[in-house]
Write a structure and sequence with these properties.
The longest helix is centred in the N-terminal third of the chain and has 18 residues, at 6-23. It is built from five helices and eleven strands, in the order H-E-H-E-E-E-H-E-E-E-E-E-E-E-H-H. The chain starts with 5 loop residues before the first helix and ends in a 5-residue tail after the last helix. It has helices spanning 6-23, 65-68, 137-142, 248-257, 276-292; strands at residues 32-37, 99-101, 106-115, 120-127, 146-148, 154-156, 168-175, 182-192, 197-199, 205-207, 214-223. Strand 9 (197-199) and strand 10 form a beta hairpin. Helix 1 packs antiparallel against helix 5. By secondary structure, the protein is α+β, with helices and mostly antiparallel strands. A five-stranded mixed beta sheet has the order 2-11-8-4-6. InterPro entries: Cellulose/chitin-bd_N (IPR004302).
Length: 297
Amino acid sequence: MCHTDHTKSFNLVTIVVLAAGVWRPHFVVEGHGRLLEPPSRATMWRQGYPTPENYDDNQLFCGGVGVQYGENKGKCGDPWNGPREHEAGGKYANGIIVRSYQVGQVIDVSVELTANHKGYFEFRLCPTDNPFERVTHSCLAKYPLKVLPERDVRYYVQGGEGYYGASQKIHLKVQLPRNVKCRACLLQWKYNAGNSWGVDPDGTGCIGCGNQEQFYGCSDIAIGHSDVVLGKPAVKHPWLFQEETDVEWHFGIVKYNNKTTEEPPPSSSPIFYTSNCCVAVMVFHLMALFLSLPAMF
């Protein structure tokens, strides 16, 4: 007669549940996307621009939910605590102006979601007249762009052929401000995904609540200046102390832009972020260890 050790089975289930709870307190399903039009600093190489190739241009999510929130978060998808390669002075921020528009023009914007996970898009603008100058959150906050025809600052992603599957291209009409003219503006795209478990400030927990994964893309554009030459920087690099062909040129400007050490924003409830594969490996080893032990009863 077969005998089932219910105590051992119960303990095994308990360990698996506790392990998942400790190591993965937030159920996360990762979305991915890139800004195609106007081409972002990370993606413009795909359209033939002579810029470094970034094969991870659909994964600019500021290092993940655990590090991306706070005033110090990167504006173009880089982690706040690492070299900001997509911000001014970085490897992919070459100051090349990719599009020139008229003041107040309705422009075409295209986004490719390589994994559609609900949520919404937002677009912002920061006029600096210098693509080699880092933008600030306060500047971007002044110029939220409206998506037509609803004229809302948020576009809520709809389900489509890319929903949890193949890639999906979304084409939108976006209104530029009627009072902004610049030789160099940074256009920022933000994708706030909406299918991970989270908790709102009022304590409500749900899929899409609380802090969600965010993806970014930044494009260099000009507005209201017909003499701007596309495909070239709008101005001379102010920190260029060596020739661009010198291998130290890139490292010099990156060091300049990252010379101030920024502290992480305070957090009363730290979030631990791990990948699904890490959790699976951990649970597998725990199960193997438990099954190798002699029965306690």
